[in-house]
Specification:
Elements (H helix, E strand, L loop, with lengths): L16 E11 L4 E11 L6 E7 L10 H5 L16 E11 L2 E6 L2 E4 L2 E10 L4 E11 L3 E2 L3 E6 L2 E6 L5 E2 L2 E2 L3 E2 L15 E10 L3 E4 L2 E2 L2 H4 L2 H11 L5 E4 L17 E11 L4 E4 L3 E7 L2 E7 L10 H15 L7 E7 L3 E4 L2 E5 L4 H13 L1 H6 L8 H20 L10 H8 L19 H20 L3 H15 L6 H12 L4 H9 L7 E10 L2 E9 L8 E7 L4 E6 L9 E6 L5 E6 L14 E3 L2
Parallel strand pairs: 1-15, 22-23, 23-25
Antiparallel strand pairs: 1-2, 2-8, 3-7, 3-12, 4-5, 4-8, 6-7, 9-10, 10-11, 11-20, 13-14, 15-19, 16-20, 17-19, 18-21, 21-22, 24-25, 26-27, 27-30, 28-29, 28-31, 31-32
Bound molecules: zinc ion.
């Protein structure tokens, strides 16, 4: 069993592993990154592999790329006309002969943003291959709102991601996952450990995924002391204060023009980093996690609260869903509006106040989905954007002490959108969703759906929480599919939710509940009221009904979704103490009913 009916990874579940050693340098004169990497790839599959597929995301900026054909030049996920892409100097296999080793050049073929490398010898199950690559690329200013650079008065600020050739995922479901990088779909990668060394000008400060291994070389004594203090502090401590930004004493003394920042990273699916000579840097700590923010002086003044927002975020999700497993969580202000990588996120420097809280708690929420729970973002954006948008609801409620969500979540809000008829199924691959609808379809709808499930469809929110935690725990550091999620939730909840998954995630069925009519019949015991209900929308839901009597009293009735098992008409029949004068379905607007005109019957 690879994946079980219970929604768990089965006893024979397997997953490939890719460990990386990366050495890269940023040339700020040419805005170029040149690097070399060693990939240690472990084949845990039962298959012998003759070739490997690698992701070359920078090739999205090739002049004739597929993405260039489908994205308008100024689209969010395009490059604003920038032409670039990877130059690959070599790809070779490391061969070992006892204690000696050799190098064998590998034949490769680039296919858009992917590259197939022919192994020098077949890689059997249980064995590992070691590849060496050297590459370079020019950093675009606007890198599809995922990476890029921006010039500030103090110098260029770089946000570097999707920046080294990365192993594609080979899994039991689809073999090689070779979705092209087209812009709107993010990424899907194997887990592994990283050893990363990044060389930048001496005046620059680097923030990166992982644990900094050489603070003595790249930080000053006061900076190291402030970071140590911050790690133990609930409140924000300045590491480089605004008044200190860009001053020579913030960088270690020395003659060399560059410094190399060295990081160790465990069990992640990617690494990313940022560098600038003009970062304000502050930090705090939560349960041994170093919470950091780096932002230029020109950023929105609201960034002074970034670390507070980030700390709340890491603490809240840790306590509510799954403990944050990594040593640091970093928020960087720059040109990217909002993008997530393991341990580090990029949020727009213009954001402030509630917008900055929102983007921070969203991007850092991605540490859980898809960084810890590693779903395929290019195929199933709803499993990371949607799940994340859902947990963001409760982070926001907790931070602002609101009683109802300010943004996504409430059913009535979703119902108004669904009523426009513009809905698309969240199950669509990311690049198949109309760009203008991405937020509604892959963020808003799944979030509203899980909110509906937790708050309304289940009788107790703790049932949902227990099941959702179980899914997260079962699939942490693994590759779940939608079916794994559905099965895991049903198994833990003890509910058949197939109707809900199908209608909400695979289709665009709408909820429309109605009171058709109310009549009275007599039997030997007296009058019996017959309430004729209908569900003309294709998506069934439980029914909340408020029944008002002529004597002024009213009662609320909840009918289970099973009333629709035999069709979309249902007769509710019983005795009342007085005449029924009004019946209303969904009076609390707890369901996303697209047509409320038919929800009320009143006696005429
Ligand atoms: Zn997101």
């Amino acid at each position: 069993m690879l994946r079980e009916g219970s929604g768990r990874p089965g006893p024979r579940y397997w997953q490939q592993r890719a460990d990386y050693t990366i050495r890269a340098a940023l040339d700020t004169a040419t805005h170029t990154i040149a690097g070399s990497e060693t990939i240690h790839y472990t084949n845990n599959s039962p298959d012998t592999l003759a070739y490997l597929w690698l992701q070359l995301d920078q090739n999205i900026y090739r002049a004739a790329s597929r993405a260039a054909a489908i994205n308008p030049t100024d689209a969010r996920f395009a490059g604003r006309g920038f032409e670039g892409g990877y130059t690959i100097q070599y790809v070779r296999a490391v061969q070992r002969f006892g204690k000696a080793s050799g190098r064998a050049p590998l034949a490769t073929r680039v296919n858009g943003t992917l590259m197939r490398a022919e192994l020098d010898r077949p890689l059997p199950p249980g064995q590992a291959a070691t590849l060496e690559l050297a590459y370079s690329f020019e950093v675009p200013e606007h890198g599809s709102d995922r990476m890029g650079r921006e010039q500030f008065p103090g110098g260029w600020l770089y946000e570097i991601a999707q920046w080294y050739p990365r192993l594609a995922v080979y899994d039991d479901v689809r073999g090689w996952n070779t979705e092209q990088y087209l812009g709107q779909g993010e990424f899907y990668l194997e887990y592994g450990d990283f050893d990363v060394a990044i060389t930048v000008p001496r005046s620059f400060v680097v923030a990166a995924t992982g644990t900094l291994l050489n603070p003595l070389e790249v930080l000053t004594g006061p900076e190291r002391a402030r970071l140590a203090q911050a790690l133990k502090s609930d409140t924000t401590i300045a590491v480089i204060a605004k008044t200190e930004v860009g001053q020579a004493f913030t960088r270690p003394a020395g003659a060399g023009p560059t410094l190399t920042w060295h990081y160790s990273v465990k069990n992640v699916r990617d690494v990313a980093w940022a560098a600038a000579p003009n970062f304000i840097w502050d930090a705090s700590g939560y349960a041994g996690v170093l919470i950091q923010s780096l932002y230029p002086p020109e950023a929105n003044a609201g960034w002074a609260r970034s670390t507070e927002y980030a700390r709340h975020t890491i603490k809240h999700y840790s306590e509510k869903w799954f403990r944050y497993p990594y040593p640091t969580a970093i928020n960087v202000a720059g040109p990217v509006g909002g993008m997530e990588y393991p341990m580090i996120v990029f949020c727009g420097h213009r954001a402030g106040d509630r917008n900055l809280f929102g983007v921070t708690t969203h991007e850092l929420g991605h540490q859980w989905f898809p960084m810890i729970v590693g779903s395929n973002e290019r195929l199933y954006a709803w499993m990371d954007e949607g799940f994340n948008s859902f947990i963001n609801i409760y982070s926001g409620l907790a931070f602002y002490h609101d009683s109802v969500p300010q943004g996504r979540g409430p059913a009535a809000q979703w119902g108004r959108f669904a009523a426009t008829g513009r809905d698309q199924p969240p199950i669509l691959a990311a690049d198949r969703v109309t760009p203008a609808l991405l937020g509604s379809v892959e963020y808003g709808k799944p979030a509203a759906g899980l909110y509906l499930l937790r708050q309304q469809l289940l009788d107790d929110t703790t049932r949902f929480d227990t099941a959702f935690r179980e899914y997260t725990r079962r699939w942490a550091y693994k590759h779940p599919t939608p079916a794994d999620f559905f099965r895991s939730m049903e198994d833990a909840l003890g509910e058949d939710l197939s109707w809900f998954w199908r209608g909400w995630f695979y289709r665009t069925d709408v909820v429309d509940q109605a009171v058709d009519s109310v009549r009275v019949r007599q039997d030997s015991s007296g009058p019996i009221t017959r309430i004729f209900l209908a569900s003309p929308g294709a998506l069934p839901m439980p029914v909340d009904m408020r029944i008002t009597l002529a004597n002024g009293s009213a009662e609320n009735v909840r009918l289970p979704v099973e009333i629709w098992l035999l069709g979309n008409h249902y007769l509710y029949e019983r005795k009342f103490a007085a005449d029924v004068v009004k019946v209303e379905v969904d009076p609390g607007q707890n369901f996303p009913d697209v047509r409320r005109e038919n929800n009320v019957w009143t006696k005429s």
